[in-house]
Amino acid sequence: MGDKVCVGAIAGSYGVRGEVRLKSYCAEPSAIADYAPLTDAADRSFSVTLIRPIKNGFVARLGGVTTKEEADALKGVDLFAPRDRLPAPEDDEYYHADLIGLRVLDTGGTEIGTVRSVMDHGAGDLLEIQGPGLPNTVLLPFTKACVPTVDLAGGRIIADPPEGLL
Fold first, then answer.
1. Which of 74, 79, 135, 149 is the most buried (most CB within 10 A)?
2. For 15-43, what is the mean pLDDT?
């Protein structure tokens, strides 16, 4: 899905008329509706109308979803927008989709592993790194101090992990 970027997810139904709880991953959360129609991984297309904000997202109406049962069936579905409709990231900003799969090297050039996912639990982004030399995945803070270089063209990240992380 390199030509698409995940911009949100359906968190479940809201009410009995087919509305959904929509979680936006956009920098400006309400901008998710600007990128509609959105598609899911199966390439189903949905128009999006935001009804009102709620805690952790929006109440939204998706095109073609008219009942609570249809909305319930979409819980957990990720929604994607075409990359060419999204704004270009500014300097030192990256779409999470661009970071996943990059090789991670330490400052000496030794390979640590690859980025499995990017997480944000409220205190900033974390890179989940998996590698053959790691017994478990590790979470590396995605800060300038811990990740001084991101080379998208070269498919790599140079990391300076905190003492004891690895």
1. 79
2. 93
Single-letter amino acid, residue 135:
P
- Fold that domain 96-159 belongs to in CATH: SH3 type barrels. (2.30.30)
Sequence-separated (6 or more) residues with CB below 8 Å from residue 153: none
Secondary structure of 5-21 as H, E, C letters: EEEEEEEEEECCCCEEE
Q: Give this prediction's pTM.
A: 0.74
Provide CB contacts within 8 A for 152, sequence distance 6+.
Answer: 94, 98, 102
Residue 129 and residue 136 in contact, taking contact as beta carbons nearer than 8 Å: no
Q: Please provide the distance, in angstroms rounded to a whole number, between the alpha carbons at the two ends of the chain.
A: 31
The type of residue at 145 is A
Q: pLDDT, tens digit, for every residue of 42-98?
A: 999 999 999 999 998 999 999 999 999 999 999 999 999 998 898 888 888 888 888
Residue-level length of the chain: 166
Token digits of residue 131: 């590698």
Question: What distances in angstroms separate CA 88 from CA 21, 29, 83, 95, 145, one per listed residue?
Answer: 27, 17, 9, 9, 24
DSSP state, 81?
E
Architecture (CATH level 2) of domain 4-85? Beta Barrel (2.40)
| pLDDT tens by residue, 138-148 | 999 999 999 99
